[in-house]
Amino acid sequence: MGLVLSGLSVFLEVHHAAYQGKAIGLLANQASVGPDYRHALELLDERMPGAVRKVFSPQHGFVGDKQDNMIESEHGALRDGRPVYSLYANTRQPDAGMLKGLDIFLVDLVDVGTRVYTFAQTVFLALKACSQCGVEMVVCDRPNPIGGLEIEGNILDDDCQSFVGLAPTPMRHSLTLGELAIFFNSRLDKPAALTVIPLSGWKRSMYFKDTGLNWVMPSPNMPDPATAWLYPGAVIWEGTNVSEGRGTTRPFHLMGAPYIDSELLASDLKKLKLPGLALRKASFLPTFNKWAGRLCHGLELYPLDQTFKPYLTALSILGVILKRWPEEFKLKDPPYEYDYETRPLDLILGRRGLFEALRSGVSALELTNSFAGELAKFKREIQTVKLYPD
Questions:
Q1: Within 13 Å, how many C-alpha atoms sit on residue 300's CB side?
Q2: CA dihedral over 315, 320, 322, 325, signed as positive or negative
Q3: Distance between CA atoms of 99 and 2, rounded to whole angstroms?
Q4: Nearest 10 degrees: CA dihedral of 374, 379, 384, 385?
């Protein structure tokens, strides 16, 4: 066994007996595994025969087969006939019919510590539904793979709420999914009955490599923990015509576009002396998504240590691009994650006007420093939801 036990392992070893005789709905996907890579559903069926009556899946589907944003999964069934309800389909919140007959809505998902990762929004909406239907939510917690200490970014503004942000958190929030659930629940007018099964042995200073747990990619473009480390910054390219490396084997590590000069971009970025970052000039040919079949030029990024700041890094790169290639660079138009009116980049950044500030010449460092007050307030707010020591 590793240094850390997941909430799933703790539930199966310690808490399952308290839920015997309860009808369970399981929210999970392909990354919901135990220490031997056996799936949560298999382990629960073995330990609690007949308990899991229904299965629910987040974005990308129960087996993680859907590649991109707004590619929906259909409802389906397991081989034994149990229903599988997609919460990334015609609805993103379980309805009363889906929850009918359930006592427990059990969550076992791998989150990646970034506000825009949609699994957190799925849990938020499921909490609301559980509250309305009188179903208890139980979250089997898992580590924040990018640590539980560092926080980055502005707090989400209300007018930028969407399926990539439903609660006032920063881009890199430092919480586990269980802690997020507590935070979300505290903001509901009618909180749900919520139990979090904590991790055993996890400390906030730990990154995923320190846990001894097995990594299974929770979504098709999150192949390893290093990708999660880059994601709080690299995700901004989804709102632009810069490739975030989808369609390559290095999503979110690679970024670029046909119009970028790698030499100039690398030279300008190195002058900024960004912490914890190594980079190399890179060219790549996406096989799908933006610039599919077109040679892109840009960078491959390498986080070196815990001083690395993914959000500052990405905004700094964006600032260079806006200065060097202002005519070629474009923002993507809506829709983005079911919002058909707001600019995708504003939804991702969680605040209108940040892009305009960068375009006017405000540096990424000035911009991120301006968030200090709101982040200090957020740090105070989350003291009551933290379950783990530093």
A1: 10
A2: negative
A3: 35
A4: 100
Residues 6+ apart with CB under 8 A from 72: 66, 86, 88, 89, 90
CA angle 65, 71, 73 (to 5 degrees): 60
75 in the Ramachandran plot: left (φ > 0), alpha (ψ -120 to 50) or beta?
A: beta
CB 176 within 8 A of CB 146: no
> Quick check: 248 and 290 in contact, CB under 8 A?
no
Per-residue pLDDT tens over the stretch 225-271? 999 999 999 999 999 999 999 999 999 999 999 999 999 999 999 99
Taking the complete model, does pTM exceed 0.85, yes or no? yes
Q: Is the dihedral of CA 55, 184, 386, 309 positive or negative?
A: positive
Pairing of strands 52-57, 24-28: parallel
274 neighbors 312 (Cβ within 8 angstroms):
yes
Q: How confident is the model at residue 14 (pLDDT cuts 50, 70, 90)?
A: very high
Query: How many residues would you count in the chain?
Result: 390
Provide the residue type at 359 as one letter: R
CA 29 and chain centroid, separation: 14
Bridge-partner residues for 2, per DSSP?
none
Q: Where are the beta strands (DSSP E) in the chain?
A: 24-28, 52-57, 76-77, 83-86, 104-108, 136-140, 194-197, 254-257, 277-284, 296-303
Q: Which domains does the chain have, with CATH numbers?
A: 7-220 (3.40.50.12170), 225-370 (3.90.1150.140)
